Amino acid sequence: MNTHVVRDHDLFLITSSTGEVSSDQNEAGLGLYTKDTRFLSANALKVNGKKPKLLAAREEGYNLSSFRLMHEEPDKGAVEILRTPFIHNGTMYEKVTFKNYFPYEYNCEAVFHFEADFQDMFIVRGFRTGETGDVQPSTQGENTFTLNYLGKDEVKRSTSIRWESDATGRVEEGDLVFPMNLRPQEETSIVFTITPAHDGQSPEPADYEEAKARLVKSYEEWEASFPKLSMKHPAFDGMYKQGIKDMKMLLVDVGYGDIPVAGTPWYAVPFGRDSIITTLFMLSSKPELAKNTLRTLGAYQGKEVNKERDEEPGKIMHELRFGELSTTGQTPFTPYYGTVDATSLFLYLAAEYYHWTADDDLIKELKPSLDAALAWIRSKETARPNGFVSYHKQADKGIPNQGWKDSSNSMVHKDGAFAASPISLVEVQGYVYAAKKGLSAIYETIGWQDESDVLKNEALKLQEAIDNHFWVEKEQYYALALDENDEQVQSVTSNPGHLLLAEVKRDASVVKRLFAPDLNNGYGIRTMSDQEKGYNPLSYHNGSVWPHDNGMCLLGLSKKGYTNEAAALMKQLLDASLEFEDQRLPELYCGHDRQSEGLVPYPTTCSPQAWAAATALLYTQAVTGLNPDGVSKTVTVNPAFLEGVEKAEVTGVKLGEGHLSLKLMKTDNGYDYSVVENTSGYEVVPVTTRTVSKP
């Protein structure tokens, strides 16, 4: 069924296409959620015993929606109903307006049915079962109806429903009943304020109109804070603006400032890998989100060996949950650490953040966390004879594959057999190299010379080892991974594209392979070549196209100066966005060939998804080709214009101590630029374009 999602920080609502939550549609997971718990499992309306019919549903911007419905008596008249829900500051607001279009005075009864099952999100999705608490008797007050629950964790959860209306409402067996007597074209409204409380903690609701005004203002301020990239390209403008809006929806603060969650609806919690990659893509616009992410992940960094959570000292978490199954220890997500790449990406993000900000203070503040993360990486490098960071699941209820392609069938050999763990992923070694190389230069600048030298030597050794162990001569490409026997997993995949963030010796071969038709479907780079036995364009990780995966490749192309290829990949993703409502890049789409089959949507995706939205925002960096160096206080410029663009202007890029604004233009010899504003303290330097083909 079609669903609709509205969200603000940690509270979100999933409704049907009619704007309601119906208890007979619970298989779709409809409801109001916070803290990984469904605080409202029914919010349904009947007028005179009948469900109204949907006329139209629309998004009105600023995370506001409206659902226009009709209660009709054929050949007599109708009552039009307008539902306008939104969420702000931990509270759901909904205004329901009834207007009489009968030619006479019309009596009707509006009945709102509310339920709250307080189920853990894992139970709602059918992923887990477990021991849970009990729904408690509801309580009533003046214009207030409260649903209550006592969890197995002894936490009290409740949902308070308040209303204001000209019509007098009453509670009847859990329903709110509003008798109405409307003259022709008379209208009346009911305003609901629905507030979840967790362990007695709940926000103080505001007036409906005041809350709505605050929500609109927060979006206006958010949008105004982003760099402006002007290049007379309407398709880009649509995708970019949608990405900005989606990122606002996907922020949460668990104690260290706003960070992005992974995606709505089912992954609306902090994830190590997702939050890192999302903020990495946003360094040119919102470096403070990277700062908050580093602090948050440092605070939840592994402290001990705990096999039930795949936890180890220094390891960066995979996922943090707050639901009843997690707080009672029935699932290992408080947090869960089953990820092999988040720790190296944490270090890489710290280095990249420094290059955009030259923020010595944060690096010094994070030094204990950086040391612990490096110690974890070194422990993994020495744990196996090959010297690479590897993963092997310890937790019984953990994730079997622990790279970003974490489905159980994603590690597949050319003969179709699944690779056995411990597994060493190629991109993880690239992340480790890039992190050590980046931190080495930063440490030298700060004055930690001995540690800088160690990191530099380790990086050089790893660079050579990647080439020696992962290169597949027959494919002229790098292997996906090494298995438990250090045999190459030679299936051709997108993973080696992430090596462009490092300094592998054969990057030109990698770039060429990314644009070969078996790996690139015309809408982006597939997760797996269509020539592999494991290929399935309908699969999650073995042939689909993921915008963020392409974003990692795009960032590498931009950093390496492959501007033709960067421009071609940006066009492919932009063309894909045009196939989706509101140009919202989804989590993934199917890998079918563009020329023969067009874009085929993936049947179940998170929407919006943080790192997909952030891929749209990465265009600011990729189009301008900005690549800062916080050590030398320089920033290089190497533009990659979209097809048909002759000039562009970027204003308000956050850099160093201030901002950078540039005018960019095509010339007979490539590109030229002029500096409009530079308060960053960085010197702007041009570089030379590289290319391997004409995609």
Description:
With 695 residues, this protein is of the alpha+beta class. The protein is 29% helix and 26% strand. An eight-stranded antiparallel β-sheet has the order 6-7-8-9-16-13-12-11, covered by helices on one side. Strands 1-2-3-4 form a four-stranded antiparallel β-sheet, with no helix packed on it. Strand 23 and strand 24 form a beta hairpin. It is globular, with a radius of gyration of 27 Å.
* Uncertain residue ranges: none
Number of strands: 30
Number of helices: 16
Sheet with the most strands: spatial strand order: 6-7-8-9-16-13-12-11
- Name the helicity range: 25-40%
Task: Report mean pLDDT, rounded to a whole number.
Answer: 94
Beta percentage is: 25-35%
Task: Choose one word for the global shape.
Answer: globular
Brief summary:
29% of the residues lie in helices and 26% in strands.
Highlighted features:
alpha+beta; 30 strands; four-stranded antiparallel beta sheet; about 700 residues
Secondary-structure map:
Blueprint: E1 3-8, E2 11-16, E3 31-34, E4 37-40, E5 42-47, E6 53-61, E7 64-73, E8 77-88, E9 91-100, E10 106-115, H1 121-124, E11 134-141, E12 144-150, E13 156-165, E14 170-172, E15 175-182, E16 187-198, H2 208-224, E17 228-230, H3 234-249, E18 251-252, E19 259-260, H4 272-281, H5 287-299, H6 324-327, H7 342-357, H8 360-381, E20 424-425, H9 426-446, H10 449-470, E21 471-472, E22 477-478, E23 481-482, E24 488-489, H11 507-514, H12 547-560, H13 563-577, H14 594-597, H15 610-617, H16 619-624, E25 627-629, E26 634-637, E27 647-655, E28 658-667, E29 670-678, E30 683-686
Helix pairs in contact: 3-15, 4-5, 4-7, 4-15, 5-7, 5-8, 7-8, 7-9, 9-10, 12-13, 12-15
